[in-house]
Each structure stands twice: as structure tokens, then as C-alpha cells.
């Protein structure tokens, strides 16, 4: 076979592992949710800021592994000046870099929010993706725990703004100083034990997922999951494990530690502040099991947890769990500054929260209408220009509209297309209508209802007309009228 006769190789379309394509419905639902969160954040006086997807790898605070490519947990590449850059792991470390770089220009306290994608170079799994969206709010330059208390109150308000009722969520609060005091008491203080402390933190962070027995294993030699994968443990002694477990389960546990006492005092202050503002323990609750797995937290830490049950992929009823978290990170900006810069913040996991809202029926209930479809009856330039003019008139009036762009000669295909698009109305003008200067306006939603429900002529006469002929000059007004009637029908259907 000659080279000319060889078939070209067909490239296989493959979605990268751990990534997803997003549908129009998901994007609309995300935008709806982000709009509600943004409204709460701005009501609290926060303003938007945006940082790039890439940062220099050392700015992300990752300890680079002994390899040619620093890809432990992050996606990295080497720039043409031999410097390593990585896709951001979260939105907090980039904010710390931004604050440090612009410290002389910004006004402290610096209160900002930002939504964006973050990237984790980790093993993907069910519901675990390598790219996902977070929505953060941070206050930089406020040392008092009142800033932490306000974060918790704002998160409670955000949950309710999204339609999550009291009793279906709780903001759980702890203090890293409390737990650091426990670690000091069992001999895990100091820089030499930083790695082991982080393993202990991550073990306790899995309490909700694996229970106290699973945490014991992760504090000790390690744990094997159902698939046979083994997670190496923190390697604590039996006595050390016993004290950590006592901290989690025994209300009377109190190690001899000034740091522990300082953390407890801050928690009592936060509790007093939120209670005074009207946030009882059913909304914001002190909970010693809240740890947060990141090393940079230095004080109060908090999590937003949804407490209602959902059915998992195995058909089991489980508590939905955490949809966001944060805390005080006074050392993160200081890495760049050489001076203390207090900061506290909260991050919402947008994709996970969106799943929860769909479970509750609080998101994506308002169907996004397709565009009004201007159909094409004649393909000559003059007719096409007129159809385009109708389309532009609708758009100029703020009405979503499109002119049919496919094979116009099969009119039935145009109406099938309108049905697939969810178009509420079709605009039709053939030669006869053009000669009279009129257009047909077809109410596709009412027409579909009538075709399924009406059985006699009397009912038909009483129903809203599904197709009308109006002068070209009245096109926009009539479309508006029909869209308003359709919206009222949807409202009534919801109220029934």
C-alpha cells in the first residue's frame, strides 16, 4: 500500500485521569452558588483579589523532594530561567505571596476573597479530583481572635444563604495551640519532629472517615484500606497514642502545657464572642477533633460540616461531612517578610458543596431556558439578513436568542433542535408572512403542554394560544409577554 493510500492515524480522545469536563448545567449551578457566597462575603466587607494559577514552587511552602522534578503533591514545570513553577495547591499560599509583595501598598487589615481552581498531583479516586474549585476569604493583619470568630460567623451565614437550614450544618472550632500543647507533652515538640507532627495531624484529620480505631492505626504502624493499599502511620508509641486518644475522647484530659492553656483561653473567647452575636452551639461549636491537615495553621482552626445523611455509592447512609475549613496562619506571610504578620481565613470546597446542595434540592432547580430560536425559511441573503435582524432585536432587548445555523431546508429539524435546546419560543417567517410584514411566534412550552393535555375544542379555546401572528414591529413585546407568562406558570407549578 502506498503512503497516499494509508489511512491517517486517528487520535484517541481521552480525558486526563482525575479531571472532569463540566456541563452547562454544572456551570450555571456553580455560578448561582458562587453568587450567593460572594454576596455574604461582600456584606462582611471583603473585596475580591485574583492571583495566577502558577506560583514559584518555593512560594507554595512545599518541601521539595530529592528528585529532578518537584512534583510531590503539585504539578510543576521548569521555566526558561531554570526556576521551578507549580500550579497552585490552594489559594492561601498565593495570597501570602501577594500580601508580602505588595505590603507597602495594601491597607491592613486586608480583607479579601477569591474563587478559583487549585490543583493536586495526587492519586485520583471516586469523588477525588486533581483540579477543583475553592472559594476563600481571608483577613490579613488582624491579630485578635475576634477575626477568627467573625470567620466562623460568616461561614454560618454563608451556609444559610445557600439554603442549608440550622440543624443541617455546624461550624466546628478548635485551636492548633491546644493540640500542639498535647504534642509537646508527649515529646513531639521542636523542629526535629515537624514531619511526625504533620503525620499525627493528618491521622486525626481522618477521625470522621475512619473512626477512633482507624486513627489509632494511623497514629501507630499504619492502616490498610479495603483495596489493600497501605498508609504508613506516624509511628507513635502505645503511651503516646493513648494520650492523643484521651485528648480526643476524654473531656477531663488536661496536659501540663502553657501552650495548651493559651489555646483553651482563646477558644473560650471565641465562644463568648459568637454567643454574644447570637450564634449558639447548634451553629458554631467548640470541638477538639478539628485539627486540619495543613502544617501552617498556628491558632484557631475551623470546619464547616454538613450533618445530614446522604446515600453513598455503596447505598449506605453516611453523614455528608466537611465542605470547607480554615484557620489562623500567622507564619505564612512572615516567611516572605521576616516579621510577624497575623492572618486568618476560610476556604469552601465549591464542587463538594455543590453536590451537597443538589442533594438538598437547593441548587439547579431553576431550569436555564434555552434561547428563543429564530427559524430560517429561506436561504437567500436578503431573508437571512432579516432573520439576523430579528435575532439582534431580541438580544438588544436582553432576551437570549439565536438564529438557526444548521441545514435550514428541513424545517422539522429546526423544531427538533429547538426542543433539544429547551427553547421557549420559535420565531417563524416564510414568504407569505414576509409579504404581510408579520411573524409567527410559536410558544413551544405551551404547545408541548397542549399537545399532551387537551382533548376537546372547548378546552383548546380556553387555553393560552400556543401560536400567534404579530406585526414585525411587535416581535420583541410579544416575546416578552410570552416569556413572562411562562415564568408565571413555572412559579405556580413550584407553589403547588
UniProtKB/TrEMBL annotation:
Segments forming domain Aminoacyl-transfer RNA synthetases class-II family profile: 37-371
Keywords for this protein: Aminoacyl-tRNA synthetase, ATP-binding, Cytoplasm, Ligase, Nucleotide-binding, Protein biosynthesis
Organism: Pseudorhizobium endolithicum
Catalytic activity: tRNA(His) + L-histidine + ATP = L-histidyl-tRNA(His) + AMP + diphosphate + H(+)
Stored Gene3D superfamilies: Anticodon-binding domain (3.40.50.800), Bira Bifunctional Protein, Domain 2 (3.30.930.10)
Keyword flag Aminoacyl-tRNA synthetase: yes
InterPro entries: aa-tRNA-synth_II, aa-tRNA-synth_II/BPL/LPL, Anticodon-bd, Anticodon-bd_dom_sf, His-tRNA-ligase, HisRS-like_core, HisRS/HisZ, HisRS_anticodon
PROSITE patterns the record matches: AA_TRNA_LIGASE_II
Pfam families named among the record's database cross-references: HGTP_anticodon (PF03129), tRNA-synt_His (PF13393)
Transmembrane intervals: none
Protein name: Histidine--tRNA ligase
Subunit field text: Homodimer.
Sequence similarity: Belongs to the class-II aminoacyl-tRNA synthetase family.
Entry superkingdom: Bacteria
GO molecular function: ligase activity
Magnesium is among the record's keywords: no
Lineage: Bacteria, Pseudomonadati, Pseudomonadota, Alphaproteobacteria, Hyphomicrobiales
Enzyme Commission number(s) of this protein: 6.1.1.21
